[in-house]
Design brief:
Elements: H1 12-23, E1 29-43, E2 51-66, E3 73-75, H2 76-79
Antiparallel strand pairs: 1-2, 1-3
């Protein structure tokens, strides 16, 4: 009997497709946006080896309407065609 999956990986295109379907968008070009947050800390394996460091977190994912084509721009008509 096959084992259940323990991990699923999504491409940028798949994430955009899911977001377009969730919002019922089936027209136009949409840029997949990713919002980041950043903070600083002193981090290291020990207090003596700690260095100033940056911590970057993913804060949000979004879609932004656009008229320009690009590597992170997706056509809603192709990814979520009207039925």
């Amino acid at each position: 009997m096959p084992q259940p999956a323990t991990e699923y990986i999504f491409s940028h295109e798949n994430i955009a497709r899911l977001m377009l379907k969730d919002r019922g968008i089936s027209e136009g070009l949409w840029l997949l946006t990713i919002g980041f947050s950043m903070s600083g800390a002193t981090i290291g394996p020990s207090q003596e080896e700690a260095l100033p460091s940056a911590i970057v977190g993913i804060q949000s994912f979004g879609l932004q309407s656009t008229e320009r084509k690009g590597s992170m721009v997706f056509d809603a008509a192709k990814l979520n065609p009207k039925k």
